[in-house]
Amino acid sequence: MATDVVPRRGVPADRAQLVQWMQEYGVYLGVTVLLLFNVAFTDHFLSTENFRTQAVQVAPVLIVALGMALVIGTEGVDLSVGSVMALSTSLLSLYLGYGPLAALLVALVGGAAVGLANGALVAFVGVQPIVATLALMVGVRGLALVLLPQLEDVHDPTMATLGSGDLVGIPYVVLIAVALALLVAFAVRRTTFGRQLLAVGDSRPAAQLAGLPVRRVLIVVYVCSGVLAAVAGFLATARLSASDPTSLGNLMELSAITAVVVGGTSLSGGRVRIGGTVAGAALIQLLNATLIKHNLSPSWTQIAQAAVIVVAVYAARERGRR
After folding, report:
1. pLDDT at 292
2. Domain tally for the chain?
3. For residue 259, what are the domain limits?
């Protein structure tokens, strides 16, 4: 539904409209531009194998970004998601002997425990989210390395099928990512919890005065983030056929935050755009792939992501001032 744009004093109406348009649809424009660029200048980009590879690589980023979107929707942030992925792969390697399902359950419990700790620090102790999750980021990565000090190969038929198998040509990891995106979108848009989440992000004091369970919402949000990060770690391990807590999940928090912010979820809370988050994750993956395919250093990927974040935050800042 179209909304009227009321420019703030001193800002031309056309500029205000442009900023709002970029905030709402800029991520889709970015994905379209990158697709057209690669179609024109990247060899074999339109091959089925390339699209399959891109989809498989973006799946863990998307899953982590879904949890990050929930956290940012409450005006928080979760810097521990990459470390939770590392913990997940360590627990997977340790408990895989009991079967893949048991290993998955242990990994999910580990992710939920980290999320519970984050949520408790934020909701009950009153620690700022960036500080609480930074502490867990460091501590959980250390725990993952204590549990599994070095890379270890994963030999399990079920894990191999999960990592490389497909259903009617669509990889299992992609199907899982899509299913989780639909589930999170439904929770945000169609459930009481989703409305409570947005109310808490919009104004925590007002939500408390209205009698909403603010602490419970915060706990659930951080637990969801931890569980989704654990799922991403599990799927990444299945795809790589190896557990490597040293490198798995490194800078994942950067990619997830970028996908969420570029997708239109405001850092000031009160808004969660799951469709935009999906497009944001696709944008980051396409950007990375484009730079790699054109023989640019991986360092340029980080620089490009930083530039994208600055632009997205600027657009959100301008929108918030109107």
Report:
1. 85
2. 1
3. 53-320
